[in-house]
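Our consortium's second objective concerns turning raw sequence data into structural hypotheses that experimental partners can test. To show how far this objective has progressed, the report includes one record in full. It was chosen at random from the queue rather than selected for favorable results. The single chain below, 544 residues long, was entered without modification.
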Amino acid sequence: MVFIHKHTYFLLLLLLFIVAEIAVNPLGEFPLNDDWSYTAAVITFDKTGEFNFGGWPAMSLCTHILWGFGFTKVFGLSFFVLRCSSLLSLIIGLVFLNKLLVQITNDKKIAAFACAVLLFNPMVFSLGNTFMTDVNFNTLIILCFYFAFRFFKTQTWLHYFLFVLFSVALVLLRQYGVILPACFVAACFFLPTKKWKHILLGIVALLIVVVSLKLYEQYLSRILPPNSMYKFSGNVNLLSADFWDNFFLALVSRDEMIILHLLVYAMPVALLFLPSLIRAFNIKTHAVVLFITLSVVYLLVSSGKYFSHGNIFANTVVGAETLYESDAAKQVNYVNANFDFVLRFVNIVSSVISLYVLLLGITHIARKKAWKNIFTPELIFILLFVLLYIFMLLITESFFDRYIIPLITCMILVFAYFSKHYSVKWTIALLPLLFWIYVSVLGTKDYFEWNRQRWNAYWYLRREKNISMEEINGGFETTLWHDGINPGWRNYLSLDGYDYLIQFHNQQEGFELLKTYEVKRYLPYKKDKINIFVRQDTTTVKHD
């Protein structure tokens, strides 16, 4: 009872999480998004003991493989078991984020609320129900933050050792992790005591992480296939004109998306402090700050880049509809224009609120000249990580909205620092949180439902009609998973070579309808269909 009383708010959040997962019902033996590739890597490691993840992944992946492998050895190999590994990782991340937020805010209620904002972020919640790498990556970042912060406070060797350990695990999941010990070194310059000793420890941590990555990459260079997409470190030339040309090109194309994601998804936490900040200023100050806010948001949204066209949150669908029709620039039928308008309105309002609160908070701190009390080593660590991580996002070739999840975590932590200076108002902040719960849970439920029917259609052709997998275009996952047999690339964006097609549309030129599966959607609410088409000159299968 003492434990329950001590952690009441966080336990209520976990209970809500369990209810949400029951509603989603993440059962089903099929891959989602890229996790067919990571599942194949776990299978390869189980059979050969090698981290030979083939040609698809571009990240180091070692930690992710080991995490999934541990679960499969205990519970057996299945997509559901691997999804459960991500769900546990998500819970671990929330536990330590809660501890971190309690340390910052000294308020368990605010900490649990902020954890809920991250948990029910549509990207986080959806990816937690897959074996994608994003949740594990964010959890390891949270662990690194927590133990770095504890070391700054206690200066104990255990916290330092755990920071180094999780930093190595992070860089062996994605190469981006190399920036964590660099942030640690910089933060040590702001420590009040034993500064140079801790800077030296930070440099040692950085060397350990870099050497670990280099040794692992030497190993990978010997076993990966020649066509591997893995991005080896050390290929960045900061003095190259091409490097900076590509950097500024990425800056122009990605900056609005990154900023909007941060403002939109952190809004419920920002909203906690809005009433208090409104009372702190006169009308003239509010007018100036509001004008700046509206001008910046207008510049951001006028580009039309509300959200990335990437594969997690597009037009109210959580998770890409990776079928031929949706990725081949065809008209797709899952967009509800009215709900899409509502979502865009919410995005704009959320951006205005978050930026307004942020600017008011900065103005208030500047007026009180409280910079020394604000810029602690811990906050410096977070802010430097944000800058370096954004830099990494701008120099990488690929970019998806899910890559921004660590920055959303940081944005929530930054707003948490406001709790030291302002009182909170709960009633107005709960409404947007409830909206994101609605979007996340029902969107993920839809994601699983149409994937179940997509795979039902696929196995109908494979098992009942004895059609070879090479003849079926069921979209990204079905064409690349290959029933788990030597997964690899096949061009699902073309219909050439395919006699059977699985998609939402009920018409396709050169094909005729063979079978239909109903799909019930909740976001937005409507009925859909997954259709099987057969090429008109194909006579292998008779119509039902």
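The partners drew two points from this record. The first helix runs from residue 2 to 6. Residues 2-225+240-446 form one domain. Both points have been shared with the crystallography group to help prioritize constructs.
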